[in-house]
Amino acid sequence: MLRPQDVVARYNSETLKRDIVQSVASTITTSKATAGASGTRLAELEVPQHFVGKSLRDLDVRRRYGVSVLMIRHADGSVTAASDADLVFVEGDVMIALGRGADVALLSESDEQS
User: What are residue 64's phi and psi, to 5 degrees?
Assistant: First the structure.
């Protein structure tokens, strides 16, 4: 049974995600990478060609690279939270990713054809 408070809670959660994405996206404008605590790195990475046409679920980026994709900046300038694992990458997309420095570097150098 769907309760009104569940709908409101879900709406609030999605609105908060959108607001956080917009806030973070506006701070990542000039720097391609930002060092964080404990060797973590927040980086803006062009989507590798072999990612185009595939979803986050298909690619399993978190498991394969140890990196979390937080958001996607599209060629038209719009930004989408990467909370939807079925989001499909298109040519010109840029990932905002968070992970250990070495893992982010591995992802940025990825050219395997998976």
Answer: -75, -35
Eight-class DSSP state of 36: -
Residue found by looking up tokens 């990458």 in the block: 89
Q: What is the pLDDT of residue 49?
A: 92
- With contact defined as beta carbons under 8 Å apart, do 42 and 98 qualify? yes
Domains and their CATH numbers in the chain: 4-108 (3.30.70.1450)
Tokens encoding 105 = 């570097």
- Tens digits of per-residue pLDDT, 60-108? 998 999 999 988 988 888 888 887 888 899 999 999 888 888 898 888 8
Per DSSP, the residues of 65-85 read HSEEEEEEE-TTS-EEETT-T
CB 59 within 8 A of CB 114: yes
